[in-house]
From TrEMBL:
<feature type="domain" description="Nop">
    <location>
        <begin position="252"/>
        <end position="370"/>
    </location>
</feature>
<keyword id="KW-0694">RNA-binding</keyword>
<dbReference type="InterPro" id="IPR042239">
    <property type="entry name" value="Nop_C"/>
</dbReference>
<protein>
    <recommendedName>
        <fullName>Nop domain-containing protein</fullName>
    </recommendedName>
</protein>
<feature type="region of interest" description="Disordered">
    <location>
        <begin position="366"/>
        <end position="397"/>
    </location>
</feature>
<dbReference type="InterPro" id="IPR012976">
    <property type="entry name" value="NOSIC"/>
</dbReference>
<dbReference type="Pfam" id="PF09785">
    <property type="entry name" value="Prp31_C"/>
</dbReference>
<dbReference type="GO" id="GO:0071011">
    <property type="term" value="C:precatalytic spliceosome"/>
</dbReference>
<keyword id="KW-0175">Coiled coil</keyword>
<keyword id="KW-0539">Nucleus</keyword>
<feature type="coiled-coil region">
    <location>
        <begin position="49"/>
        <end position="76"/>
    </location>
</feature>
<dbReference type="GO" id="GO:0005687">
    <property type="term" value="C:U4 snRNP"/>
</dbReference>
<dbReference type="InterPro" id="IPR027105">
    <property type="entry name" value="Prp31"/>
</dbReference>
<feature type="compositionally biased region" description="Basic and acidic residues">
    <location>
        <begin position="381"/>
        <end position="396"/>
    </location>
</feature>
<dbReference type="GO" id="GO:0046540">
    <property type="term" value="C:U4/U6 x U5 tri-snRNP complex"/>
</dbReference>
<dbReference type="GO" id="GO:0000244">
    <property type="term" value="P:spliceosomal tri-snRNP complex assembly"/>
</dbReference>
<keyword id="KW-0508">mRNA splicing</keyword>
Length: 487
């Protein structure tokens, strides 16, 4: 069938030059044998040329020339048929999980266990325990499938409304919006209430009216709507599995359920892929589990706060003061890591360890919230207290010497008894005191007055008063002075 459609296209005059390539003819033989590796390339190659040529022919066609109109109609119909065949050949299964028979059997088994009222602890040997473990695995697979189909839908819907993926980040909300929009041009008439917030609705309508998107073909629209249905169906299965795991949490992880509740515990275990995987995670990774990226749409980040993931949905976290919520989430993640390891080792099946961890955590948190003690008033010093002692040292001594009272200033402050102070300095009222009246002691370096020692190796000695003298003469003078007898 594919070769037949290609041969119809090749009969047209404007495509004859592309048939001369031997490699191209070899690819046609591969298509005839069922090898469709290069069909993507030829699909893009042909229709970029053909659709532009058909638009030119529509403008230049003469309504009176019936033969040309018939040829133009045959060309257009052949292209549409080839497009439809291409989509059938190139179409890939959107979600393989929905066609998996094992997955459908597992869903039926979950529904059967939900009907039973289990009051006995679940052990490793029980069939339901393995069903719960398998449910955790399927929950992780469903999450990956939703992300994959969501990406496929975004890529297909890009040419129609490319800005929608940056406005609506949640995959479920995105596919619901796509199902409402489809090929509609006026987005103001679409009711997005219940899916988007008021701010998102305004942004979507404004962006949709300002952007120039191309309408989708019927085949592309069918694929997109089928992908949207798959995402919604996978999401419903995910909620069913999570509800089942939540109902069995008191037997799987009793301490974790006592700490954060069965709902949050099931979401943590489902996101991690099981109890064993969760107990391997550090507290810093547990803290950010469930965090979702939010689109601010150009608004301020001031009111967004800290993204607290699954822990932000707990009642005692929401009731805590905003300035202490981040600290409480950190304490929770640390205690969750302890509780899940206790559950994994099966050391406390009653859940009392989880209750004890929660009690200690809340007591510590209440202590953190208490205001600090008031600042005590410092008592005043006694009036007759001695001045505080300054520390000594070379630096402090130099400072005292620099700022100390000099002898010159001390004379200025003195007055001679009985005399009147007459002298003033330029009418300032400050006199000179006893400056210039008292005796001043001159400190002379004694080393300057010390006589030099007489050398013993030289015979001559120089004296500024008597000139040169010999050592013998000087000795004789000393003897005369010492031993001279009075007359």
């Amino acid at each position: 069938m594919v070769i037949l459609q290609l041969q119809i296209l090749f009969q047209f005059q404007y495509l004859q030059k592309y048939i001369q390539d031997d490699e191209f003819l070899q690819d046609l033989d591969d298509l005839d044998n069922g090898n469709f590796q290069n069909i993507n390339y030829y699909y893009q190659f042909f229709f970029q040329i053909q659709e532009s040529d058909l638009q030119i022919e529509e403008q230049e066609s003469d309504s009176e020339d019936e033969q040309n109109n018939l040829q133009h109609f045959e060309k257009k119909q052949a292209i549409e048929e080839f497009k439809e065949i291409y989509h059938k050949i190139n179409a890939k299964p959107i979600s393989n999980l929905l066609n998996d028979s094992e997955f459908k059997k597992h869903i039926i088994k979950i529904e059967e266990f939900n009907k039973l009222d289990n009051t006995v602890p679940i052990t490793v040997q029980d069939e339901e325990y393995h069903t719960i473990i398998k449910s955790n695995e399927y929950a992780a697979i469903i999450e990956r499938e939703i992300q994959a189909v969501h990406k496929f839908t975004k890529d297909m819907f890009q040419k129609r409304f490319g800005e929608l993926e940056s406005i609506v980040l949640n995959p479920i909300d995105y596919v619901k919006c796509v199902k409402l929009i489809q090929n509609k041009q006026d987005l103001n008439k679409i009711d997005f209430n219940g899916i988007l917030t008021n701010l998102q609705i305004t942004t979507v309508t404004v962006a949709g009216s300002s952007q120039d998107g191309k309408p989708l073909s019927s085949q592309d629209l069918k694929q997109i709507l089928a992908a949207c249905d798959n995402v919604i169906e996978l999401y419903e299965y995910s909620k069913k599995i999570q509800s089942y795991i939540e109902s069995r949490m008191k037997w799987i992880a009793p301490n974790l359920s006592a700490l954060v509740g069965s709902g949050c515990a099931s979401r943590l275990i489902t996101a991690a892929g099981g109890v064993e995987q969760l107990q391997r995670m550090p507290a810093c990774n547990i803290q950010v589990m469930g965090s979702q990226k939010k689109s601010l749409l150009g608004m301020s980040k001031e009111g967004q706060g800290f993204n607290r993931g699954y822990f932000g949905q707990l009642d005692f976290v929401q009731k805590a003061p905003p300035q202490f919520q981040t600290r409480l989430v950190r304490m929770l993640s640390t205690n969750v890591a302890k509780a899940i390891r206790i559950d994994y080792l099966k050391t406390c099946l009653s859940g009392s360890a989880g209750n004890r961890l929660k009690e200690i955590m809340l007591q510590r948190f209440s202590k953190i919230q208490e205001p600090p003690p008031p600042k005590l008033n410092k008592p005043l010093k006694k009036p007759d207290d001695k001045p505080s002692r300054k520390r000594g040292g070379e630096k402090y001594r130099k400072m005292k010497q620099k700022l100390g009272l000099t002898d010159f200033r001390a004379l200025r402050y003195r007055m001679k008894f009985g005399d009147e102070a007459e002298e003033e300095f330029r009418g300032s009222g400050k006199g000179f005191g006893m400056i210039g009246m008292g005796q001043v002691k001159i400190n002379v370096n004694p080393n300057l007055l010390k006589k030099p020692d007489i050398g013993t190796k030289t015979e001559n000695y120089f004296n500024k008063d008597t000139g040169f003298k010999t050592v013998v003469e000087q000795k004789q003078e000393k003897n005369i002075l010492v031993f001279k007898k009075p007359i």
